[in-house]
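User: Here's a chain of 185 residues. Predict its fold as tokens.
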Amino acid sequence: MSFLLRDASQADIPAITGIYRDSVLNGVASYEIIPPSEAEMAQRFAAIAGQQYPYIAAVDEAENFLGYAYASAFRTRPAYRWMVEDSIYLAPEARGRGIGKALMSELIDRCTALGFRQMVAVIGGASPASIALHLKAGFVEVGLMQGTGYKHGRWLDTMLMQRSLGQGMTTDPDPSAYPGTLFAG
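Assistant: Prediction complete.
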């Protein structure tokens, strides 16, 4: 399956909503129980993209939407502004085809170029496929929280993983340049 990566846009909200809906209803990556509406997903998109975080779409040659990835604030306290949390969601037919790996690589590259120093993954359901994807991308396991959610009739664990970006914590960041200007205070 051939695909390309591009910036996601407001026009992608119906497809993003559909993929996320499937994940909410059938998966454990999200601990939401009721899928959000398109209007809610549009607000979430605007909040993330509006703060200059990367939001990437994967599409095939016919522009069929295959998946998406974005980075967002791990926490909004000022000291956390150098760290992002990654999120990747794929259409069921796109899984296992290298699209998640490509989205992850592009997301890491873009976050590094923006000046972020750490990326964290909060993996709902401690999904073995998601853990494997993150390990291949250079993440390390930093903690397993047991029984953090109850969905689909079972208790779910959450795996925390992390990787350094760019210079990581070897140098001081520039607070006057993005992302130093996020959540100032």
